[in-house]
């Protein structure tokens, strides 16, 4: 049994939107204009006779009704709704009754007469066709408003569809048998191929009335897209009957063709709308599948980013600790151990260990907005502390450091560990960029105050610089220009800076190299 919330994704329970209501009104209005023209100025106009029209018309109607029935049976298999089963059977009825109708139609297979029955049989099959489908629509409207326990089919889907098709076939055979075998006993509604009997309205009016009753019931109980378009079909049925009588249609005249065109439209409307809605729902489903796939890929990228972030962030303090440990061991292994230098190296190891622990604790806050520990800090002191941490690597690669700090810089509010990580990453990237080429190696770190009250920091180098094609990509996660890079450093920096309500950008340095600016930390006074 389908879950109630699933009903909103099947066609028979989709509420009609404003656009569909307007389209339905436009269809009705357009067909009324066609009726007015065919029954008025063009009434009696006799265009060229098309003998293949009736077989083609009947075949198209049979195909339309059969496909509509199949789609509705598919809806029934999802919802188990008795109402859907009834209206699907109605379309089976209209498809099957077309077979005896075309066999009885004069002149289609045998000149001047039908294969079975005669003119009266054709007319009575026409009445049975329209009255029968309208009765199915009435059954649909009544059952869909019944108690919830009575709306659903409790048996198997296959048995229900088989029983429905079998009973509908029996009904069509019975109607065809009565119309053909008892043709002489039925009221005479046709005088000949050109004239209708005066008794036609007495038979046609009740058939049209049944269609009007179905239309009213649908109007009272309307709720879904299917209800709306069945109302249009019943309206077309209701006007098709009188059009078949007045003006008296000569076969293959304009008004005669108009009646058949209305019948074809009434047969096609529900099918067209259902196919359109199926396409729309398929598009939505495809969009949802793609969204799920993108979400899954985003989670995978996020997982890779977290793993790369951990490796990237922890690697730097660990490398510093290893360097300090090697230096400490060298100081101790000298013939005359240098205890003061060894002690300084071991203090650097302790500081690096604490910093690594702080980095690990801060990794989660890089990806989340809550739980950040922010405090007032002196950004110039943070720059000096970071330069001190990197002093060994900078000296090892013979990099000259220029620190241009604005001493009037106010205290700022931020996460000390995260902001230091930004400085470490930017300085490390600058250092790696400079050692890749020959020439002067100058690292310039500057702080300054912006006019808007924000504090800015810039890290400039004289290295390889950034290619124009990479300017917009260097901050993307997992993008790197280094053979052993992880592509997370600058992405982390941008995330941290933006979390501090600022921005990070890069610019070329003159005569070579690159400058990274970030302006993110608000001053205490701001």
TrEMBL record:
It is an enzyme of class 2 (transferase). The keyword Zinc-finger does not apply. The chain crosses the membrane at residues 23-42, 54-76, 83-104, 124-143, 155-180, 200-220, 227-245, 257-276. Its EC number is 2.7.13.3. Residues 309-524 form the Histidine kinase domain. InterPro entries: HATPase_C_sf, HATPase_dom, His_kinase_dom, HisK_dim/P_dom, HisK_dim/P_sf, MASE4, Sig_transdc_His_kin-like_C. This is histidine kinase.
């Amino acid at each position: 049994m389908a879950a109630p919330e699933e009903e909103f994704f099947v066609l028979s329970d989709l509420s009609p939107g404003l656009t569909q209501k307007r389209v339905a009104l436009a269809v009705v209005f357009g067909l009324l204009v066609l009726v007015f023209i065919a029954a008025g100025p063009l009434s009696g106009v006799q265009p060229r006779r098309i003998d293949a029209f009736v077989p083609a018309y009947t075949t198209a109607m049979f195909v339309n009704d059969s496909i509509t029935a199949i789609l509705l049976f598919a809806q029934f298999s999802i919802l188990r709704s008795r109402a859907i089963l009834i209206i699907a059977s109605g379309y089976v009825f209209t498809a099957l009754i077309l077979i005896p109708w075309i066999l009885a139609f004069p002149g289609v297979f045998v000149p001047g007469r039908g294969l079975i029955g005669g003119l009266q049989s054709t007319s009575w099959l026409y009445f049975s066709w329209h009255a029968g489908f309208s009765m199915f629509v009435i059954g649909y409207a009544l059952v869909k408003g019944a108690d919830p326990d009575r709306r659903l089919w409790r048996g198997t889907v296959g048995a229900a569809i088989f029983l429905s098709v079998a009973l509908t076939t029996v009904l069509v055979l019975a109607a065809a048998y009565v119309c053909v075998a008892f043709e002489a006993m039925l009221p005479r509604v046709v005088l000949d191929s050109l004239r209708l009997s005066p008794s036609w309205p007495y038979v046609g009016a009740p058939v049209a009335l049944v269609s009007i009753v179905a239309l009213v019931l649908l109007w009272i109980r309307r709720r879904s897209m299917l209800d709306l378009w069945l109302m249009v079909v019943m309206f077309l049925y209701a006007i098709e009957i009188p059009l078949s009588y007045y003006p008296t249609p000569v076969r293959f005249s304009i008004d005669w063709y108009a009646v058949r065109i209305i019948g074809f439209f009434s047969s096609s409307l529900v099918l067209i709308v259902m196919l359109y809605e199926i396409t729309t729902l398929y598009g939505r489903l495809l969009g949802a599948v793609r969204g799920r796939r993108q979400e899954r890929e985003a989670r995978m990228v996020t997982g890779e980013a977290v793993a790369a972030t951990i490796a990237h962030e922890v690697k730097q303090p660990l490398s510093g600790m290893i360097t300090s440990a090697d230096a400490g061991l060298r100081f101790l292994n000298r013939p005359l151990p240098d205890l003061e230098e060894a002690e300084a190296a071991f203090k650097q190891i302790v500081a690096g260990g604490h910093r690594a622990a702080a980095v690990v604790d801060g990794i989660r806050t890089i990806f989340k907005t809550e739980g950040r520990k922010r405090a007032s800090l002196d950004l110039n002191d943070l720059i000096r502390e970071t330069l001190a941490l990197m002093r060994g690597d900078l000296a090892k690669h013979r990099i000259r450091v220029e620190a241009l700090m604005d001493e009037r810089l106010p205290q700022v509010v931020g996460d000390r560990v995260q902001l230091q990580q930004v400085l470490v990453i930017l300085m490390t990237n600058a250092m790696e960029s400079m050692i890749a080429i020959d020439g002067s190696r100058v690292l310039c770190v500057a702080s300054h105050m912006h006019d808007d009250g924000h504090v800015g920091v810039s890290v400039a180098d004289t290295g390889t610089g950034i290619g124009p094609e990479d300017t917009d990509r260097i901050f993307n996660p997992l993008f790197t220009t280094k053979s052993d890079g992880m592509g997370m450093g600058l992405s982390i920096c941008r995330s941290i800076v933006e979390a501090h309500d600022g921005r990070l950008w890069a610019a070329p340095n003159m005569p070579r190299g690159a400058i990274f600016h970030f302006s993110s930390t608000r001053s205490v006074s701001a």
